[in-house]
Design a protein that fits this description.
about 375 residues; mainly alpha; two-stranded antiparallel ribbon; 2 strands
Length: about 375
Amino acid sequence: MPVTKRSAPKTQQEPMVSPKVELANRGSDNISVASGDEDERKNETQALVGGGGPIAPPSDFAKTAGRFLFCFTGLQVSYLTWGYMQELIMTTTFTPTPSAPDGRFPSAAFCVFSNRFLAIIVAMIAVRIKHGSILQNNVAPLVAFAPCALSNTMSSWSQYASLRYVSFPVQTVFKSSKIIPVMVMGKFLKGTNYPYSQYLEALLITVGVAIFSIASKRSNSDTTTEIIGLLFMCTYITFDSFTSQWQSKVYDKYGKANVDPYQMMLGVNSSAIVMTTMGLIAGGDIPKIIEFFQVNPNVLQYNIITAITSASGQLFIYTTIKEFGPIVFTVIMTTRQMMSICISSILFGHTMTWKAAVGATLVFGVLFYQIRKKYIASQRK
């Protein structure tokens, strides 16, 4: 559902500004959002991140702090809950059924389907509120979203399926290494050139991920099983990297004034729901899922919660980037990754050795270094 921001009474009249501006993530991200006055936005970001620039008046700072707390809490609650439910669904042994004698949820594809189904409803509401009609200003054809819808579906399916073979902390840290395929896809699809420093950072992240993955290997686990899980994760980051680069290509081709994030959300999920439905029918998963839900009705509730938090998380992503820009958003989401690892380790009994901690520290250290570098670069402009 759309998010309504509450604002404190204004002490002075502010100009109404409604242009479309581009907030670049000084890297591979390109996101078009509506923005207020540029100088005011810069002051807000400096006040939040700790820059040395102008400080907003107390009343403005209170409004900014309130909006930041709203976005921060919304992102954390949405994605921490989503991650917990994801692991709960895919790793718990429920009551066995004839089609699922091991008691494990039989269809990762249905998890993707439920997320896309609710995301379409939320996107339709958001587009209707913003443009007055669901099909209003619909410049990009549906087929333009099909390639990234397919890659998005495959990456989500691989993400769910991998939890059968690797732990959630390993999956979370492994995702950080997608900077490498992102750079490869950027070079292949858009001809983007990257400085050597980014290749070094990507290498350090890869080393950290490798250390964490090897150190987190359970002594009683089958090596073949671990390899299958890592192959699923490689599939995830490859398709996920294609998704972001293709979305950027759609923005460039049709114009960000004609395709906003909510229209992108609607177009991608509309194509994806068709693909996931066909996958469920072709794979014969529907009878298995119905049978499993009849025996384990609580799993249906878990899937509904997962779909709700996934959709709300997407809305908070757009709201946060609109209000504070991609740098602050990246800080919040990197923090969320660290928190999700801690929560998963506590609730699901994952042990973390000192070697794994070193690998995780290396990964997140490089990520925060990249964030700081982008922030400094933004202040120089």
